[in-house]
Amino acid sequence: MNGRFLVFTGFLINICLGAIYSFSIFRAPLEKLWGISATQSGLPFMVFLLMFSIFMAASGGLIKKLGPRKTSLIGSIMVGTGWIGASFSPNIETMTALYGIIGGAGVGVVYGCPIAVSATWFPRRSGLAIGLTVMGFGLSGVIIAPILTNLIRIFGPLQTFLYAGLAFLLVLTILSLVLRFPPSETSQGLKVTTGVRQDYDTDLNRVQMVKSLSFYALWSAYMIGCLAGLMAIGISSPFGREIAKIDEYVANLTITVFSVFNGFGRPLFGWITDKLNPRKSAMLSFTLILASSTALYLFGEGNTPVYLLSFSLLWLNLGGWLAMAPTMTKTLFGTKYYSENYGVVFTAYGVGAIAGTYLSGMLKDITGTYLSVFPIVILLATLGILIVFLGLKPVRHRSA
Fold first, then answer.
1. Among 117, 264, 315, 363, which one has the highest count of C-beta atoms within 10 angstroms of its own C-beta?
2. Rounded CA gap, 95 and 112, in Å?
3. 3-state class of 247 per DSSP?
4. What is the DSSP secondary structure assignment for residue 189, as one 8-state letter?
């Protein structure tokens, strides 16, 4: 089995899983169909993100016990069930249970499988391999959203859930069948050399990992990176219309461009993490977030170039954290317990995603302007730099 083929397989799996990023196109049709509010139409998305995070943490042990193929097959059935079940929903509450809980849990179960496979097939270039794998999640909106938009226009939102669910169930099942770890003689005892002394054992299990300062620094940095990024990118289109003063059509079109940056940020920062070390790559990311947010806050009003450049960098860095965090987990804590360890680290994404989505809307409601989001992002990026500088260090755990 060719490792590059498995990375490409993981990329395709993530395109299907990333369809959650296209959920916003369902919201207006569902609001019209059921006469519900904007807050209600966002419930399936919020619950989906929560279940995604919880089941990603829980699936690490399942991958180790059953292997990536069986685990991915279980999750794929859940994903398909969630989408198909949503098509029979009589109201938003039922859809939240079917799509949000079952579909979100399924994505959480599948998501770690191709990442773990890519990490073990390419131990010395894991950042790039993981980045290419999860790039599909970031680019999914560019590929899947236009398809779903046309299906909704022709068949309506509920039928679209049915057709998409059947397609995802079929494609994910087929792709899951080829997932596997490399032969045992090449996958056991791998030692990560980036920034870690070789006279120390870096294969820490969950219990050992959570006792280290580096875990809390990584978890906090990952949470802040996702929180800051999602606070910003969640307001990309309205900020363009209301603050940068660009045409509504152009503002919506830029989301496609930003999504490309989000996708390519993953292999880029994965590669950077391979070349540098966790601390340097994380500090670079936070510095870019800090610079972009400062530019938007000070010079964003009526300034199209600043808007385009700054939001492109913010989307790039959010994507980057989805590759940096798993690579850093492997670098700092080893490969032996990787899938279980990254499941715990990934809970930071869930906290950041939910908090970021909520805070950006709350700040706009309180202040009346989306500019108020960026002083908070500036503060978070500064805090991230301090946490990384002080706490994200190689783990010195001696072998027993």
1. 117
2. 25
3. coil
4. S
Q: What are the structure tokens assigned to 160, written together? A: 């679209």
In order of 197, 295, 303, 311, 371, the CA distances from 299 in angstroms are: 45, 5, 7, 13, 10
Which residues make Cβ contacts (< 8 Å) with residue 203, sequence separation at least 6? 333, 334, 335, 336, 337
206-391 architecture in CATH?
Answer: Up-down Bundle (1.20)
CATH code reported for the domain at 3-181: 1.20.1250.20
Residue with tokens 């070390």: 277
Amino acid symbol at 347: T
pLDDT at residue number 184: 62
Q: Can you tell me the distance from the alpha carbon of 252 to that of 177, in angstroms, rounded to the nearest whole number?
A: 37
Contact 269, 287 (CB under 8 A): no
Q: Burial-class residue 180 by CB neighbours within 10 Å (0-12, 13-18, 19+).
A: middle
Could you state, in order of their start, the residue ranges of all structural domains in the chain?
3-181, 206-391
Q: Alpha-carbon distance 110 to 130, whole Å?
A: 15
